[in-house]
Records
---
Amino acid sequence: MTNVIAEISVSLDGFVAGPNATLENPLGEGGELLHEWVVPTKTFQEMHGGEGGLTNSDDELFAASVRRQGAVVMGRRMFSGGEGPWDQDPNPSGWWGDEPPFHASVFVLTHHARDPLVLGETTFNFVTDGIESAIEQARAAAGDGDVAIGGGAAAIQQAITAGLLEELRLHVVPVLLGGGVRLFENVGRPELERTQLADSPSGVTHLTFRVTR
Amino acid sequence: MTNVIAEISVSLDGFVAGPNATLENPLGEGGELLHEWVVPTKTFQEMHGGEGGLTNSDDELFAASVRRQGAVVMGRRMFSGGEGPWDQDPNPSGWWGDEPPFHASVFVLTHHARDPLVLGETTFNFVTDGIESAIEQARAAAGDGDVAIGGGAAAIQQAITAGLLEELRLHVVPVLLGGGVRLFENVGRPELERTQLADSPSGVTHLTFRVTR
């Protein structure tokens, strides 16, 4: 059964990217600390063309999410960092290289129409009519898998506000970034039920919430 | 051994009180939701003159903290809600009634000097020379017990900024308040190590951090 989920690493003070993000450093100052739990895992390394990697409980948890992933929705900045028309985007093929790690259909929220872009086993589709449409198209592409709202924060916020997010998985990292991009902003007051809790060898706390309303 | 600790309930979006707090409703809109896990416990009920109450794992965890508590530091608003000179405070004896739940020495941060106030087994001392002094006096009063920075957020932030907070215990409640008083603001970037993690029958996540720098 398809669930519409969002999974993201967040600092203890609620940021998903640090201050002063740039095209060169899209995670902002200190933002890389949010991903130190996942980068060394075997699953992450395999997805990004690496070898080896840890096979700990963080890896199992991350692998289970990846296995369930049928299609992905992401914001324009998570795709390329750009904002304007595509012919002026400094990074029109995106951050993700020739063999992006998604191996699935990805739906990119943008104000600027564009034909699909196929890179390796990933097809990036560009959606100009909003989050509802992107999620609907991703559902159709996901088969029995989940639709993952990959980020950034704005895409997740839009999915919450539209009442379409069903599950939120947070990886709470014990760092304070002191500024940057907040996960929870302008999302109203959806009701949440905490359904899972998992510890981590890295000191991260993995929390799963069902969005009930 | 005395530890300087702070223990506080916080919403998933990082607030320790909801929006629009007033003297009548000091927790702000929705703020009471932050305490629904603890109010029904046997330990809380006993502290506040009630009877009965739950003896679940939340109660055990809360009771363990209370047992370790040797002295308390709190902000003026947590004492009375007032701000100015004491003879103009609308609530000069504080929120806590004739038999406050602390049964210990409490050190209230204020800009306005005042003689100690004894209510039941609790003595409120009024400290005008800042958080370092308040913590030092509380240490002297705490014996082998812990010094608990009871709140509000500003008192905890001052203790962190002064480099005096040793342990932070958060009860992360699965609600979004959407506004109010943030726990983490203007605290710089202390380093934290997550040392404990406990589930709760109420869906709250209990997290303990050691402040290492």
---
Amino acid sequence: VKYLPNVRLPPNVVAVPDLSDAAAGATLLIFVLPHQFLSRLCPQILRAVAPGCRAISLIKGVEFESAEPRLISRLISRLLGGMDVSVLMGANVANEVARDEFCEATVGCSSAESGALWRLVFHRPSLNVTVVRDVAGVELCGALKNVVALGAGFCDGVGYGANTKAAIVRIGVREMQAFCALFFEGVEKDTFFESCGIADLVTTCYGGRNRKCAEAFARRGPGATWEAIEVELLNGQRLQGTLTCQDVHACLLAKGAETQARFPLLEAVYAISFEGRDASTIVKLVR
Amino acid sequence: VKYLPNVRLPPNVVAVPDLSDAAAGATLLIFVLPHQFLSRLCPQILRAVAPGCRAISLIKGVEFESAEPRLISRLISRLLGGMDVSVLMGANVANEVARDEFCEATVGCSSAESGALWRLVFHRPSLNVTVVRDVAGVELCGALKNVVALGAGFCDGVGYGANTKAAIVRIGVREMQAFCALFFEGVEKDTFFESCGIADLVTTCYGGRNRKCAEAFARRGPGATWEAIEVELLNGQRLQGTLTCQDVHACLLAKGAETQARFPLLEAVYAISFEGRDASTIVKLVR
């Protein structure tokens, strides 16, 4: 009623308010909640599920700890006693999926068996599910795209043309790839051709709230603050991209100047967002 | 004056009306003209140039012959006695480049030496040039993107959402890769992460005349003809995408049904454009 008005859910979706009841004897768990609740809820879930239970996380976001990205899927796995945890990401916002419009999703799985199983759960003619053996790549795409979208928004705010913006998006994919490879083993370039990669990035850079707020930030020029923009455009909700941008910068800073130099776009987004650099400098990416 | 009003060309660009004079003693040739003129002009050029002369083609398009794509760069090379011919493509429309806005380009070269040389010629802070050793991949991107853009336009015309459109674009990149690999050796997946790939494709699918005309075609529904749309929206100029679409279909048809099945998007664009299939079926891509 609140988030998807006029959408009729199928009868096999049943709301069970008690978590232990909901998870009792479960063989499959699907996580779609703010990750702050995980550490409180997971112990309860673990006590209830069937042996051999598997999980999948649709949670978009990433934790940072000691200047290193930490995957939410690994956090869930740890909290659930080493359970097999896959992830599902991609360009598939709830309202379009609910209208049964054609969308895609990418499952990142740690075993071929889990991948096949989750595809069976989610794939249908209007939701094309591709499976890749790259949890970290799939999961990090969802967080990093928001930082690139800030760059795309700066571009729009300054009034640069379509080719400049396409260049920002493209350089963004490359730096997303490089960032994932810097911190995780087994990240595949091919992952970025999947829905979680270019498709989700393009949607976010051509629509999306991070792009919109960054455009407003650039238009206002010196003195603009994210807080004021969040109050005006998002009713005070916090932007994801600016938070991730700070964490990403902290990670790169900790690796040193040589590493920072390999990420001119991500670093330019940080400098514009938090160090007062002019938004027009988003294109100073080539040395 | 006609195509780039108010743009001042640098003094080292000199117009020489006589082709033999222009090419006399040349060590570098840059081809930017409709390819129909090549067979007439190349013999004249060949007689005039210096030994060891190299060429680069910026000509977007591809010839088809006996249901096989033929690269314009190979045609030029043949007409110039086997000269080393590279290509330059990407999201870099003339008016944005002329305003010195940040853009990118991809050079596809057949030798590392040529690649380094052409980068020296074109690269500057506002034009980021990447070199790849994949002439066919770079060159075919420029033609195939227009077919995908028709699919994106159908999507817009039917009124599908942003995630559906992103899916079409993503599936488009995958089929572009597969099409190139079907007909040429040495096509690299990485090429499609370059400006000639995703950047040019995104620009074309979110702006661009092929997208616009396909949107109109879908809006009009049964009875719409490309000829009428070309008259109304393009002053009678011919669309590139519909021509390429027919050639691509002929290539796939000649390879047989199994091959056709591997290109559901390219084939759906053909069926909607030329076989009266409804534009809404652009999303029937999953079996």
